[in-house]
Specification:
149 residues, single chain, 7-stranded mixed β-sheet, 47% strand, 25% helix, alpha+beta, Nuclear Transport Factor 2, Chain: A
């Protein structure tokens, strides 16, 4: 039963990420990560890097480490009502190992534009999540492999 509840909680973590970022719920978005979390934007070769905030650049990846960097990311990210977009996550696979989990999923970011709705990014998330002392699952590492723009 615990395994099933953990899978539901991890699915909620994936979905909350999109809801919070799309509507500018900055504190709630930050609460999805551990204090020392690492968030990586990894672009397929040939795609344009989109810097948000002030990431480190490591071997071509844009890397945000810890709460200060994540705060800079979410503060600079667009959200409703200034810009309408949806982060959609699908095809998630969860591998549980006690208080740790590996999660792989596909994502798309869909934006509203004057010319019509369009997919502006897509790829997959590679996540490492941990169950924290308060029993909440949080991202310890999230790698967004951006494969299309």
């Amino acid at each position: 039963m615990r395994s099933l509840l953990d899978q539901v909680a991890l699915a909620r973590l994936l979905h909350d990420y999109g809801h919070h970022i799309d509507y500018g719920a900055k504190a709630a978005w930050l609460a999805l990560f551990t204090d020392d979390a690492r968030y990586v934007l990894r672009y397929r070769p040939g795609l344009k890097l989109r810097r948000i905030g002030a990431p480190e650049q490591v071997d071509g990846d844009l890397v945000y480490r810890g709460m200060a960097a994540l705060s800079g990311f979410i503060a600079a990210h667009s959200h409703a009502p200034d810009r309408w977009h949806k982060h959609v996550v699908t095809n998630w696979r969860i591998d549980l190992n006690g208080d740790r989990a590996g999660v792989t999923s596909y994502f798309f970011r869909i934006d509203a534009a004057e010319a019509g709705t369009r997919i502006v990014a897509g790829g997959r998330y590679l996540d490492r999540a941990i169950r924290c002392p308060d029993e909440q699952w949080r991202f310890a590492e999230r790698i967004a492999e951006i494969e299309m723009q």
